[in-house]
Amino acid sequence: MNTDPTGASTPTTAAATDAHANAPLVFITGASSGLGQALAAHYARQGWRLALVARRLSVMQAWCEHLQLPPWQCRLYAADVAEPASIRAAAEQCLAQQGLPQVVIASAGISHGIDTGCWEDLPAMQQIWQTNNLGMAATFIPFIGPMRTRGSGSLVGVASVAGVRGLPGHAGYSASKAAVLAYCESLRGDLRGSGVKVTTISPGFIDTAMTRDNPFPMPFLMPADAFARQAAAAIARQSSYVVIPWQMGWLARLLRVLPDWLFDWALAGRGRKPRKTPGDGQDKGGPQP
Ligand SMILES: NC(=O)c1ccc[n+]([C@@H]2O[C@H](COP(=O)([O-])OP(=O)(O)OC[C@H]3O[C@@H](n4cnc5c(N)ncnc54)[C@H](OP(=O)(O)O)[C@@H]3O)[C@@H](O)[C@H]2O)c1
């Protein structure tokens, strides 16, 4: 691990850098927790170099120390994906210090319950879209030009089964993930023939901070490390779209074709994630996948 107090890493010895310069590089947002952290652990085990991004630098530092990652393998960037200048600076530092990644994974995301009749919930909705949507675009943009020039690379957007239909009580989150699905599909078409691949990953229920307090059963709940293995395999085979676990893929297909009256009936009375109360800095937790 290698960081300075600003969150950007400092160069390690030239010899160590040269010796490992050929190891592939993955850039991951949301790396301080959950899916992002599990993906980082998976790629670290495979010998990849890591460029890890989140707001909580100290959490990522503690994780790197716990895994005893050598300095050449991991650099940390404290950045807020909801602030374009912040994530842009992190991406540019990565390009300058570590080079152009083979894989960029936009996993950073938040979810809150929303009461669509309340003005007070509008800022929470804005924050969800700013993080889950603009944050994803701002994560990818710095890498698209260089990857096009190189003629290779993978951009990976983490969507959700919650984006397949609009879940009551979760208008902000469901809409954000529906937008991720469409955004990544557009991007895939834009980059067709360039050698740059786009993979959309829709997780079902994965055991992370985001789902841990859900007050209802979560079908096919999966450990984060198992998710990471399957996600990395999908990225390696350049899948355009995958639902993990696969059982949720069938559920998502079913949800898509249910008539509205049946969908509304099936979802009525389902548990809802608490709304974000004013002044609550917490971005964690959520009952929806
Ligand atoms: N867990 C599931 O079942 C599930 C299902 C479907 C989809 N997903 C999606 O998977 C992704 C990861 O979720 P998770 O389960 O791993 O949640 P998590 O454990 O709560 O982790 C969320 C990560 O996003 C980062 N993050 C949040 N806002 C950020 C911001 N503004 N700037 C930079 N980083 C930010 C957090 O880091 P800091 O707080 O340190 O910044 C944290 O590392 C999300 O996009 C989520 O919507 C999860």
Task: Summarize this structure briefly.
The chain is an alpha/beta fold and 289 residues long. The chain has 9 helices and 9 strands. The strands form 2 sheets. The chain has a 7-stranded parallel β-sheet with strand order 3-2-1-4-5-6-9, sandwiched between helices.
Largest sheet: 7 strands, parallel
Number of strands: 9
Bound molecules: NADP nicotinamide-adenine-dinucleotide phosphate
Question: Structural class from helices and strands?
Answer: alpha/beta
Any idea of the CATH topology? Rossmann fold
Low-pLDDT stretches are: 4-12, 282-288
Strand content: 5-15%
Strand order of the largest sheet: 3-2-1-4-5-6-9
Helical fraction: 40-55%
> So, CATH architecture?
3-Layer(aba) Sandwich
Number of helices: 9
Total number of distinct structural domains: 1
Element order, helices and strands? Answer: HEHEHEHEHEHEEEHEHH
Identify the CATH class.
Alpha Beta
> How would the global form be characterised?
globular
Radius of gyration, in Å, reads 19 Å
